[in-house]
Specification:
The protein is α+β, with helices and mostly antiparallel strands. The chain has helices at about 5-10, 55-75, and strands at about 15-20, 25-30, 35-40, 80-85, 100-105. The chain binds adenosine monophosphate and zinc ion (ZN).
């Protein structure tokens, strides 16, 4: 499958991986928009948030848990941070493999869209 994040999961293209377990991996965004900009993804190819089955809702919980741990590890938990999931074209999703953006390390804009 021609999916850039599946290739990172498979080790076929390099990434700065900060965390991995049996279900989830996290790495630095290649084009960061904040001092901390990490991506938390499932190992499994799920195209978007809209493709989560009911059974898969625990996956999002696992991903958020990892994001919170990484915020602590990056030293941004106290100052505050933002988790973003873009879904679909108008939602701004460019890579069709579910991911959470973890952003922090500076004052983020109040604008959401
Ligand atoms: P989205 O617009 O929500 O789909 O975000 C996709 C994100 O993936 C963007 O912030 C990109 O900078 C990031 N990205 C794309 N390719 C790579 C890559 N090979 N390694 C790390 N991050 C990537
Ligand atoms: Zn994929």
């Amino acid at each position: 499958m021609d999916c850039v994040f599946c290739k990172i999961v498979a080790g076929e293209i390099p990434a700065d991986i900060l965390y991995q377990d049996e279900g989830v991996i996290a790495f630095r965004d290649i084009n960061p928009v904040a001092p901390t900009h990490l991506l938390i993804i499932p190992r499994k190819h799920v195209p978007s948030l809209a493709h989560l089955s009911e059974a898969g809702t625990s996956l999002i919980g696992d991903m958020v848990k990892v994001a919170n741990q990484l915020a602590k590890m990056e030293g941004i938990a106290e100052g505050g941070y933002r988790l973003v999931i873009n879904c679909g074209k108008q939602g701004g999703q460019l890579v069709p493999h579910l991911h959470i953006h973890l952003l922090g390390g500076r004052q983020l804009s109040a604008a959401l869209g």
